[in-house]
Amino acid sequence: MIRFISLFAWIFVVVVQGTNYKTWMADNAPLLSQKTLGNISLVATHDSGTYNLTNTLINLDSYGPPLTTLYNALDTIANWTGEPLSDLIGLFADGVRAASKCTTKDIYSQLCDGNRGLDLRLSVYNGNIYMAHVLQGPSLSIVLAEVMQFLNETTGEVVYITAGHPYGFNQTYIDLLDSLLNPFVKGGFAITPAAYPGNLLTYTYGQLVNNSRSRVIIVLDDTINPNNNSYFSASTYSPPDGGSNTLCGFYTDSDNITVVITNQTANYIHCGTIPAPAAIYMTLTPSTGDTADLANELILEVFDNLDTYQIYESFFHLNIRFQNLCTHANLSTQVGMSSVSKTTFQRYYDDLIAPNKHRIQSLHLSNPFISDFFISLLEDIKRCSQLQTLTLCNIEYDCLETVLTAAVYLPNLSSLSICVNSQSDKITIYKLIFQLPVLKYCKMTFQDQGRDFLKLLSMSINSSSLIERLVISDNYDYSDIDTILSYVPRIRYLSVRSQNLLVMRDILGCLVIFSDLTHMSIITNCLSPISTEEFVKKHSHQVGTRHARKLGKILFYRIYHI
């Protein structure tokens, strides 16, 4: 993406068709001489020093998500895919370069093309000051040498430099910055606050280029300005995105040139009514190529390793490209929300969940508000046609019953984990779960643990439940387990555990393992051996071998069928 910024686009624009762009200001000196700087339109380049970006990342942490999220996930992706980490870092750099490289020409060429505004982003790295936009660009000394070359070759030109977005500076590097800029001051090229007090924008072109020399205006971020008499303050004289409170303007976040022109025209008109000089931002976007495609591949691999809410928070609001990736890419949507505000979740739901209900594969609800929200929109649950895993915690019984009733319409729900509050109708919960058509794994934790209620659940003689693994945290005996087993004819693994409230830990009640219909294992430490023996006889038809042994307080049975 290449951005051109037109500074001070107010009232007066010089027509330079058919002229030498390198000397367009000097060639039009008679027209410009009485015009103030605030009334002259200067063409500028955005991130002017990004024409030669290396693969070296030097200020990634200052940008935050999504770049930090992407980069921090590279090691995980390398382990997952088997791709060399160095290759992924190179791919990452290619993607960053595609978004960060705002111009293809060096500073001298930009000035010869007629650009008079330079936007320099400064970062400290390895003992020097460089141009940077996530990736390391040329050194500041190289950039300034090209500016000096242009000033020495011309007369009557005015170059406007803003140096901002500083990264890694301390007093040592502020002093270094001063030493690099000082030749412009000592050589008489710099237009300084000491020589031009008050409002710089009110001085005329003729006053600024006295003696016909080419001049340079240097605007520095306030935090790194070593000398307020030599360099102007960014808080007053930088483009608006650099923090200026004098200039007026804004980017148009669109690749549609018609939208850009419309918005920037409105901005220009608004600035004329204030009145204030305008910074007009025009965006030129090259066609998408292989590099952008590679960047998309990398981003999608990162998405595969993140929760949907992490993707939303880090990427969704960046720009249209990332919104499209979030909402239209072939992602397996995971929704896991534990602690988030009502306002945040509503925004998240409207932007990402609602348009993608049919793609949600995993849903974890443990926030009471969010659970109530989903349940109040019951049709939303029914439309989650790809939902495979559902986890429900901290939900009132009425809401839980509503969800389980609707879950029968979910054709792919194979895994269910629920935490059941006290004073719940356990019989209803069991019946609803055993009716789920494709459920294979179920884990239930009951806060109110007691045996009596299950006596009211009758034995099943024709259950078609597909549950193969059933984990229950409650207090049952063998007769209760008999009842449960009658509802799960395809069971392969059953674990029943009860909580010992005196020592606040779970104790094993009974673990029954059926393996390929060839043998059954029972491990128990709180049910009587007599009851265990009776249970074994009941569930081991045509027993060929029966083996029992005691491991401490645990009784272990293994029954082999003929």
TrEMBL record:
Q: Which residues form a coiled coil?
A: none
Q: Name one GO molecular function term.
A: phosphoric diester hydrolase activity
Please provide the record's keywords in A-Z order: Signal
Q: Which SUPFAM superfamilies match?
A: PLC-like phosphodiesterases, RNI-like
Q: Which Gene Ontology BP terms does the record give?
A: lipid metabolic process
Signal peptide start-end: 1-18
Q: Which domain of life is it from?
A: Eukaryota
Q: What is this protein called?
A: Uncharacterized protein
Q: Which organism is it from?
A: Adineta steineri
